[in-house]
Amino acid sequence: MENFPPREVMAKKQHLKFIKEAMKEALRSHAEGGIPIGSVLVKNGTIIGRGRNRRVQKDSAVLHAEMDCLESAGRLASKDYKKCVIYSTLSPCSMCVGAILLYKIPVVVIGENETFRGPEAYARRRGVKMINLNLPECKKMMRDFISETPQLWSEDIGE
Ligand SMILES: [Zn+2]
User: Fold this and answer.
1) Is residue 3 pLDDT above 70, yes or no?
2) What would you measure as the largest C-alpha separation in the chain, in angstroms?
C-alpha cells in the first residue's frame, strides 16, 4: 500500500491548507475596509510570501493580492520562482497572470473562478498548471463583497 493515500488526495489536502491561509489574508483585507482577496506563495511546502488586496488601504493601482504576495516574498532568483506554487482565493486577473508568467511560477491554485475569471486559458497555453478548488466559502466571500460594494469591485477589475 505504498501509494496510499493517493498522491492526488495528499495534494488536495495541502492545497486546502494553503488556500485557508490565503482566505485569512482575504478576511484581513476586508476587516481593513479593503477587497477580500488573499494570496500566499509556497516554496517546497513553506509559505514564503503572503498578501491581500490592498488597493483601497494603500490607495494603490497595483496591489492586488497576488502582487502584494509576490512583493512580500521579496526579490527571488528565477530558479526559486520555478519551485513555487501561488495560491489565490480568486482567479487571477491579467496583471497578476502577467507577473506569474514573467517569473515562470509553474502552478496556480485558486479558490474559485465563478465571481471573476481571469485569463486562465491563456496561462494554461503558456504552460501554467491551473488548479481550481471551487470552494463555496471563497465564492460566498466574493458574492457578499460584490453585493455590498459593487462599484469598488468594478474599479478593481478595471470596469
Ligand atoms: Zn490581479
Assistant:
1) no
2) 54
105 alpha carbon – ligand 1 mean position (Å): 15
Cα–Cα distance for residue pair 97/56, rounded to 1 Å: 21
* Collapsed DSSP state (helix, strand, coil) of residue 36: coil
Residues contacting residue 81 through CB under 8 Å, at least 6 positions apart: 103, 104, 105
Give 45 Cα–ligand 1 centroid separation in angstroms: 23
Helix (H) or strand (E) holding 85: strand 84-88
The pLDDT tens digits for 46-101 are 999 999 999 999 999 999 999 999 999 999 999 999 999 999 999 999 999 999 99
| Residue keyed to cell 481571469 | 118
Residue 144 is predicted with a pLDDT of 96
Which residues are identified as catalytic? 66
C-alpha angle 41-105-85 in degrees, rounded to nearest 5: 35
Cα 3 to chain centroid distance, Å, stands at: 30
Q: Is the dihedral of CA 73, 103, 75, 34 positive or negative?
A: negative
| Cα–Cα distance for residue pair 23/89, rounded to 1 Å | 6
Indicate the pTM of the whole model.
0.95
- pLDDT greater than 80 at residue 6: no
What is the Å distance from ligand 1's center to 156 Cα? Answer: 8
